[in-house]
Amino acid sequence: MKKLLAFMVLSLFLIGSFPVVSNACSCAELPTAADELERSDAVFSGKVIEIKEEKVKGYMTKKVLFEVTNTWKGMDESQAIITTGLGGGDCGFRFIEGQEYLVYAKESDMYGAKSLTTIMCDRTNTFRALENDLEVLGAGETPTKKAELSSSNQNSTPFYLGIAGALAVIALAAFFFMKRKKT
User: Fold this and answer.
1) Is 153 exposed, middle or buried (0-12, 13-18, 19+ CB in 10 A)?
2) 38 to 1, 42, 74, 100: CA distances (angstroms)
3) What 3-state DSSP class applies to 174?
4) Per-domain residue ranges for the chain?
5) Domain 22-161 - what CATH class?
6) Which of 82, 73, 89, 86 is nearest to 108 (CA)?
7) CB 3.0-4.6 Å disulfide test: which of 61, 63, 131, 182 passes with 111?
8) pLDDT, tens digit, for every residue of 57-91?
């Protein structure tokens, strides 16, 4: 009986000693270009001109600023900001500044406020890797509205609230200092 108990304890210890590595995000199979076009809110090609990491709801995300060259669906501005995760287990797509991409994006609040979002399970990839998608998408259109976006200017409210709070603390400190000096 003691041998059986020792064997069971040793077995449990050994099983727990070799954990299996797993990712939090995995994709079964990429959809076809036609399916992805249908389910996406925006489809465009463009060059990444800026990538900014920011913390949202306790998690790190990326805001990726694109100079849009062609559009097929849901986009008529010359620039667009796409939100994604950092990559890996959070499903984020890894963009590289200066690269051209064909982007399939959806309106989502997955990474904070509702915005155009793409993840590694979407068909988004470098333009060269998806050139065959153009057979399904067609020629595309040039954006009609000129836009000057900057991911740096997005969500600047906390910055201004911080400045206002600091000024309020300084004003209160000065008020109490002056009041104490008079007495």
Assistant:
1) exposed
2) 64, 10, 11, 22
3) helix
4) 22-161
5) mainly beta
6) 82
7) 61
8) 778 899 999 999 999 999 999 999 999 998 767 88
